[in-house]
């Protein structure tokens, strides 16, 4: 008797609640079920390298198509030079003025000067880079007897103390930037310009038989204080 008099609205709401609560428990144990306003749980934060075409908030197919494969981290506009917090490091962000040609290799050899002076500290920093990136081919003393050559049968690089003894610093830097022939790859993607100049210092140290040179030290102190465009 009392049931028939119950407000039908309450009955319907109660039923709806049961249906809803059942619908939220799907068969998939990993599914969070029905989410009420999902963006309250998951914020659509813009992240680098995310393919927004796969955004779970699928507003429209057209928008998804448009966004697909568009990386959120954009390339800087052409001609942009990165900001350097320390003024003396700004030169390392300037574009390299020489192209990957034989003429420019010669020009780099004549004009490019190492902007980093040869000091015990810079030789030590150069050595760290050399040990990690070069020694396995060029050998500890730069004699072309690294483990990759000895054990792997890789073509032997010329020795820094023989064939490459007088190779100028500009050519060392140029070859590090673009690579040399087929066997020496470009190191521009692994080492920034400052690191390439530091390791060039260490190659010069090895060219001199593992000793600091007074001439090199004196010459580079002059070069370092002259703001030459060649110092890029
Ligand atoms: C995979 C082995 C390998 C690695 C790694 C390597 N080199 Fe070389 N490098 C060579 C070979 C081989 C040559 C000789 C290339 C030629 O003249 O055909 C060479 C040549 C050079 C030359 C002479 C370039 C010229 O202009 O004649 C320099 C300088 C040099 N390497 C420095 C380095 C430095 C510094 C590193 C580390 C940052 C390095 N190399 C890493 C194999 C390597």
Task: Report on the architecture of this protein.
By secondary structure, the protein is an all-alpha fold. It is elongated. Helix content is 41%, strand content 0%. It contains nine helices and no strands. It starts with 7 loop residues before the first helix and ends in a 7-residue tail after the last helix. It has two domains: 31-73, no CATH class; 87-231, Cytochrome c-like domain (Cytochrome Bc1 Complex, Chain D, domain 2), CATH 1.10.760.10. The chain has helices at 8-23, 61-67, 102-111, 120-133, 135-138, 147-152, 169-178, 193-207, 214-225. The site of heme C (HEC) has 22 residues, from helix 5, helix 7 and helix 8.
| N-end to C-end Cα span | 95 Å
- What's the gyration radius in Å? 32 Å
Strand content: under 5%
Approximate helicity band: 40-55%
- Describe the main β-sheet briefly: none
Small molecules bound in the structure, each named once: heme C
Number of strands: 0
Task: Please identify, by name, the CATH architecture of the largest domain.
Answer: Orthogonal Bundle
- Per CATH, what is the topology of the largest domain? Cytochrome Bc1 Complex, Chain D, domain 2
The total domain count is 2
* Low-confidence sequence ranges: 226-232
CATH domain class of the largest domain? Mainly Alpha
Order of helices and strands: HHHHHHHHH
Given the helix and strand composition, which structural class is it? Answer: mainly alpha
């Amino acid at each position: 008797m009392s049931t028939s008099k119950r407000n039908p609205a309450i009955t319907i709401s109660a039923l709806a609640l049961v249906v809803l609560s059942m619908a939220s428990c799907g068969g998939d144990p990993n599914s969070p079920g029905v989410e009420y306003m999902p963006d309250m749980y998951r914020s659509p934060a813009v992240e680098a390298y995310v393919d927004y075409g796969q955004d779970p908030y699928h507003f429209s197919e057209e928008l998804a198509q448009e966004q697909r494969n568009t990386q959120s981290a954009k390339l800087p506009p052409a001609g942009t030079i990165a900001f350097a917090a320390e003024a003396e490091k700004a030169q390392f962000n300037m574009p390299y003025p020489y192209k990957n040609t034989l003429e420019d290799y010669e020009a780099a050899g004549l004009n490019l000067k190492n902007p980093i002076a040869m000091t015990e500290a810079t030789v030590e920093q150069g050595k760290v880079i050399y040990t990690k990136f070069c020694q396995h081919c060029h050998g500890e003393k730069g004699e072309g007897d690294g483990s990759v050559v000895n054990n792997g049968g890789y073509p032997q690089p010329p020795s820094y103390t023989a064939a490459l003894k007088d190779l100028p610093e500009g050519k060392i830097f140029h070859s590090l930037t673009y690579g040399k022939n087929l066997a020496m790859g470009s190191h521009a993607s692994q080492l920034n310009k400052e690191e390439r100049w530091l390791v060039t210092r260490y190659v010069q140290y090895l060219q001199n038989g593992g000793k600091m040179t007074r001439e090199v030290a004196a010459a580079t102190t002059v070069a370092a204080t002259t703001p030459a465009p060649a110092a890029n």
